[in-house]
Amino acid sequence: MIQLYIPLNFLGVLYREIKQSLADMERLFSLLGQNREVADAEHAQVLQVHHRNGAEIRFQHVNFSYEEKRQILFDVDFTIAPGTTTAVVGHSGSGKSTLSRLLFRFYDIQSGHISIDGQDVRDVTQASVRAAIGIVPQDTVLFNDSIEYNIAYGKPGASKEEIIAVAKAAYIHDFIESLPDGYDSMVGERGLKLSGGEKQRVAIARTLLKNPSILIFDEATSALDSQAEQLIQAQLKDIARSRTSLVIAHRLSTVVDAQQILVMDKGRIIERGTHHDLLALQGTYARMWERQQSKKKDMTEEDDDEADE
Ligand code: ATP
């Protein structure tokens, strides 16, 4: 009787674990907006990334719509040189995140080309494209598992030493150590709830472990407190070093150091250049910058008033 009970109990646990993992994967895919209809070409090759300091990304005359009747991107054309950072700014709904979804090939485009180191993303395997790209998303999905598992997810089979090293680099190690169960602490919906900044740091640790040649950073829309934001920005600079980075920016303070800024409006790139170039242009970007600066000033004055009281 006992003999029978143990395996059944074990199977029950296993079943729950598998079901849980599938549910988590489903959730991850749906959050990333993945379209599972995109398939590998019959003769798809493995993506070859040649550059030591990151791959070259090219969008050539890209037109794209999610649904037939509504075009989202119009003739989008840009190159990101290996090892450099390009930031995309623009109003909500202008198509910024769509660029990252297309680079990841969650969807196929209607016309134009998207290539990584000269290879069209439609001619290479999806698995090899996704292996080359690390994403730090707006909202990081945490699995209902230990914090160690959640970091190790970036590189299955990673050693504890590697996990600790990236957690330190992402400034989350001390926080983890302060938890009663340390790296074994359960997180996710059924465990410890982490703040937006902590979750993003777990995502950064995960990405550091994956060590991809391309980095996509989708900045959180919800404001982090300014200390957390500064920390994330400093880390971003660190991980962007020797990689090609695409930053979907919601705050202009993030983009100042980017080698290239693309300003999007209703699916079109309407301005491009460095922060300096774009201020000199006195166009949309310059106006956005001025607005953010005056908003910041208002907030500091409010803080000063509070401090005076
Ligand atoms: P935000 O700053 O708010 O994140 P964004 O500039 O990143 O916005 P996108 O997410 O790229 O904007 O969306 C561009 C447009 O595409 C929006 O009008 C949006 O409604 C539409 N869109 C996004 N995802 C889908 C989808 N899966 N199906 C249909 N339309 C979509």
Automatic annotation (TrEMBL):
Ranges annotated as spanning the membrane: 1-15
Entry annotated with the keyword Cytoplasm: no
Region (Disordered) residue spans: 292-309
Keyword Disulfide bond: no
Alphabetical keyword list: ATP-binding, Cell membrane, Membrane, Nucleotide-binding, Transmembrane, Transmembrane helix, Transport
Single GO MF descriptor: ATP binding
Ranges of compositional bias, category Acidic residues: 300-309
Localization terms from the record: Cell membrane
Signal peptide per UniProt: none
Domain ABC transporter: 57-291
Protein name, UniProt field: ABC transporter ATP-binding protein/permease
UniProt source species: Undibacterium umbellatum
Shown residues within the full chain: 312 to 620 of 626
